[in-house]
Amino acid sequence: MEIYLDVLVLENIVMNYLILWTTSKILRTKTSNLRLFIGALLGALYAAFLIVKPQFRLYYTATATFILSLVMVAVTFSPEKLGSFIKTLVVFYLSTFVFAGATFAFFYLNNRNTFIKNGLLYVFWDSKWTAVLLSIITSIIIIKVFIEIVQQKFFKEKLITHLKVIFDNKEISVSALIDTGNSLQDPISNMPVIIVEFSAIKEILPSEICSIFEQVEEQDFSKLASMLYNSNWFNRFRLIPFNSLGKENGMLIGFKPDYVVIGEDSERKDVKDVVIAIYNKVLSKTKSYKALLGPDLL
Fold first, then answer.
1. How does pLDDT run across 107-144, given as a tens digit for each residue?
2. pLDDT digit string (tens) for 21-71?
3. 3-state helix vs strand vs coil in the chain, percent to 5
């Protein structure tokens, strides 16, 4: 059997990186791309070592693999408390099991010749780069589905956070949903955008801005832009295009607040480089939240 060591290392780096990245997204734990890469590289080098040095059977054991996972989690996330470390490790293993099972099922359903030895999955392909490409595609699909299921089913209560918006020495407080699909950015400043219901934020808005929402239909972009341009608050407000919230080619009025506060107590975070977009409808039918923010703001 011919094994391509470069493909083995590359596949493991990609898969390990995606597993570690998925773990960070599920737990909403911040880490750098460099740490993710180093953690992924450690796992890939271990896999390569098993191929290059098959005589070292000691390193094939479950204990050695478990120690490796401890090192990968410690290097990538550096949890300060034992409880956080264990929680991260559990989610890391959960992500690993889902990835491994789904990948194996994918290859099995596609009638590929596969076998497992020393904890490594070997797949026979006519082209070595076909394996790399399909592994990446499969991983991306798994990531999307897995994060959605886990966060919605098991972490739903943690997806709601406290949001305070301060503008012109006034402030409002609302509950905000941490929306993994919210990657909206202001096209001018490239700042992340937080979407807030008009009914929840109107009390801190200038009266002339409030009148725009009362007089203009949302789809009347030209009139909306004209009224905004003639406003004394023109420098603080702008139009933000979007393709979500149930429609395409939409437009929201956004403004730069003094700053926002995300979370409370020890999880409190003050953010200045952000834009608030005003949504003139209801975001939640159950009224459990009145704002949407992306996970990158946490």
1. 555 555 554 454 455 555 554 555 556 656 666 666 66
2. 888 877 777 788 999 999 999 988 887 877 776 666 555 677 888 888 899
3. 50, 20, 30
Q: Which burial class, exposed, middle or buried, applies to 65 when counting CB atoms under 10 A from its CB (0-12, 13-18, 19+)? A: middle
- Please tell me whether residues 89 and 171 are part of one structural domain: no
pTM here is 0.51
Q: How many residues does the chain have?
A: 298
Q: Which domain holds residue 128?
A: 5-154
Indicate if 95 and 172 belong to the same structural domain: no
Q: Is 264 in the same domain as 216? A: yes
**How many domains in the chain?**
2
Q: What is the rounded distance in angstroms from the CA atom of residue 36 to the CA atom of residue 210?
A: 45
Cβ-contact 22, 147 below 8 angstroms: yes
Is there a single domain that holds both residue 125 and residue 218?
Answer: no
